[in-house]
Amino acid sequence: MDAQLKKGLLEICVLSAIEREESYGYKIISDLEPYVVISESTLYPILRRLEQSGAVTTRNVEYNGRLRRYFSITPIGREKVKDFIDSMSEFDRIKKFILRGKSYDL
Amino acid sequence: MTYKKWERRLKSRLHSLSRDERDRALEYYREMRDEMSFNGKSEEKIIAELGSPESCARSVLADRETQPTTRKKGGYSFAEVIGLIFFTIILVVPLSAVLISVIVAMGACSLVGVAASLGGIAFAIGYPIYIGGGTIGIAGIGLGIAASGVGLLLFVGFALVTKYAAILFGKFIRAIYKRR
Questions:
Q1: Section A85-103 average pLDDT
Q2: In total, how many domains does chain B have?
Q3: Which residue segment(s) compose the domain that B53 sits in?
Q4: Which residues of B are less than 8 Å from A41 in CB distance?
Q5: What is the tens place of the pLDDT at every residue in B84-142?
Q6: Helix intervals (H) in chain B
C-alpha cells in the first residue's frame, strides 16, 4: 500500500480505537491487532502527530506503580473520522472507475 | 542486551531532539516495556519486539520535519541584532579589553620567567669565570641556579594562567554570541 495512504489510514484506525473511550499505547496496538498490525515504533509518531494537530489530548495516569499515558479523542479527531467515513463512498466510486472493464478477481 | 542499554542507545540517537521531545519518546518506550513486562514478556522478547534502537530513533525522527517549530532555527530577529550591538558596545568590548590586557600581562610575565631562568644560567656560568673560582664563585653558581629555578617556576605558572585565561575568554565570547 502507498505509504501516504497507509499513514492516513492508520491515523483513522488509531482515532477509532480511542473513539469510544480513552486508551493507552499498548492497548491501542492490542485492540487494532485483529484488523491491522501496527508496531510500537509506528504508533509513536502517529500519536504525536494526532496530538500536535489537536485530534487527541493526553493525560498521565499512575497504574500499578507505572505511568500510563492515556489518549482521548477531541472534536477535531471525531471530525477527521467522520470526514474519512464520508469519503468512503468516493473511494468506492474511484474503485469502480479503476476496475471498469478489468477482470480482477475481487 | 538489557533494556537499560537499549534505551541508552536510543537516547544517544535522539540527541538532535529537544529535551522534552526526547524525554517524551523515552517515556513512551518505557511505558511499552512496562506493559509488555506486565503481560509476561521477557526482557529479551520485549527488545526483539521493539526492534533496534536505531530503527525506533528513525521513526521518531522521521516526523520531526513536519512538526511545528516555534522559532526559526539559527537566525536573529532585527530587535535581537540591535540589542546585541548595544550589549557588545556597553559590556562586551570593555570586558574583552580587560581580559585581553590580563592575558597579555600574564604572557609577558611568563616571558620574564624565561628571561630570569636564562639569566640565572648565564650568571651561574659567567660569575665563577669572572670572579675566578673560590667560595664566592661557588656561591655565585648557587645563586644563578636558584634564580634560574625561580624563573622557570614563574614561566610555568604564568604560562598556565595565560592558557586558562585565553580558554575562558574564548568560552565567554562563544557563550555571548552562540546562536540559539
A1: 86
A2: 2
A3: 3-66
A4: 50-51, 55-56, 59-60
A5: 888 888 888 888 888 888 888 888 888 888 898 898 888 888 888 887 767 888 888 88
A6: 3-13, 19-38, 43-50, 53-62, 78-87, 93-131, 134-177
- Asked whether residue B146 is domain-assigned, the answer is yes
Residue A4 confidence (pLDDT) above 60: yes
Nearest 10 degrees: CA dihedral of A16, A22, A23, A29? 0
Interface test mutation site (partner A, options B13, B32, B38, max chain A beta carbons within 10 A)? B32
Decide: residue A84, CB within 10 A, 0-12 exposed, 13-18 middle, 19+ buried. middle
| Contact criterion met (CB below 8 Å) for B103 and B166 | yes
Cell digits of residue B47: 527488545
Rg of chain B, C-alpha, whole Å: 31
Partners of residue A48 in chain B, C-beta under 8 Å: 24, 63, 67
Neighbour tally for A59: CB within 10 Å: 10
Mutation site for B-interface testing, chosen from A29, A31, A41, A59 by largest number of B Cβ within 10 Å: A41
Task: Verify that B51 and B90 share a domain, yes or no.
Answer: no
Residues of B in contact with A52 (CB under 8 A): 67-68
What does CATH list as the number for A3-99?
1.10.10.10
Evaluate whether B33 touches B41 at the Cβ level (below 8 Å).
no
Task: Tell me if B72 is assigned to some domain.
Answer: no
Q: Which three cell numbers stand for residue B45?
A: 522478547
pLDDT at A5 over 90: no
CB A21 within 8 A of CB A7: no
Q: Where are the domains of chain A?
A: 3-99
**What is the arithmetic mean of pLDDT over B9-21?**
92
Set of chain A residues whose Cβ sits within 8 Å of the Cβ of B29: 40, 44
Within-domain flag for B56? yes
Element (H, E) at A93: helix A75-99
Q: Could you tell me if residue B113 is inside a domain?
A: yes
With contact defined as beta carbons under 8 Å apart, do B110 and B159 qualify? Answer: yes
